[in-house]
Amino acid sequence: MTGPLSAILGFGLFGVFCLAFTEKILPVPPSHVLLLFLGMTAAPDSSMLAILLAETTVASFAGCLVWYGVGRRIGFDRADRLIERVGRYVFLRPATYRKLGQAYRRNHVRVSLLAQFIPTVRNYLPIAAGALCLPALPFAMATLLGATIWNAGFLLTGYLLRGSGQDSFTVGLRIIVIVVALETVFMLALRYGPAWRRRIRLALG
């Protein structure tokens, strides 16, 4: 995989943009792998790291807007059928998509933000946002913030691991732990958040 990635990176920042944008449309390679690789190989100093963060965030944001536009165009029913047909091929369960779509109706800003921390979900949940005709500006702001935090975390991790001498297995294991932890936090917030808020309000009177 590093061979094709290195070849694309030969085009400089344009190659970085294309990689980050394409990953948002079809998550191959997954964003955490791509961002870690960029942090380790394409950021010789902190200034270039900042440029990479801006470049990849804009590209990720652009990919989200593409899917948002697709959702607006095809509508909710057709979007639901699309995920039903192709979701399993991109590791997105239709049940998860529908549950998050329902959560979108209750609090689209929070879900737009938190969705950026879930692999695969972060790629395709903007389809639901568009299909539900959610307000574009709050969606865009929450998505941009979430993408910035996500990209910064993995780029910085890769940058700090640069020259550390750690083997790929160790790095890969750490990536898995980070991703699983983020996914667990999101799903817990989605499932138990409303109940916790009700309990807090009752406790406070």
From TrEMBL:
InterPro entries for the chain: DedA_domain, VTT_dom
GO-annotated cellular components: plasma membrane
Subcellular location: Cell membrane
Coiled-coil intervals: none
Primary localization: membrane
Protein name: DedA family protein
Keywords for this protein: Cell membrane, Membrane, Transmembrane, Transmembrane helix
Membrane topology label: Multi-pass membrane protein
Highest taxon of the lineage: Bacteria
Keyword Transmembrane tagged: yes
Matching Pfam families: VTT_dom (PF09335)
